[in-house]
């Protein structure tokens, strides 16, 4: 595996972790909205 392979792996890992973080953030904000509506 050359340098380009390593760079591609690093890019892939970054994008995967970013999408997971975005999904988790979206889920938590959805839950917050639901609980806020239920207490009204």
Q: What do these coordinates show?
A:
With 40 residues, the protein is mainly α. The chain contains 1 helix and no strands. It has one helix at residues 3-39. The mean pLDDT is 88.
Radius of gyration from the CA trace? Answer: 17 Å
Instruction: Give the class from helix and strand content and strand pairing.
Output: mainly alpha
Q: Tally the helices: what do you get?
A: 1
Q: Which segments are poorly predicted (pLDDT under 50) over 5 or more consecutive residues?
A: none
Distance, first to last CA: 57 Å
- Average pLDDT, to the nearest integer? 88
Please count the beta strands (DSSP E, at least 2 residues each): 0
Largest sheet: none
Q: What secondary-structure arrangement, pairings included, does this model have?
A:
Elements: H1 3-39
State the gist of this model:
By secondary structure, the chain is mostly helical.
Name some characteristics of this structure.
single chain, 40 residues, mainly alpha, 1 helix, 0% strand, rod-shaped
């Amino acid at each position: 595996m050359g340098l380009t392979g390593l760079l591609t792996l690093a890019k892939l890992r970054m994008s995967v972790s970013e999408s997971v973080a975005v999904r988790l953030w979206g889920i938590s904000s959805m839950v917050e909205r639901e609980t806020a509506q239920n207490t009204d």
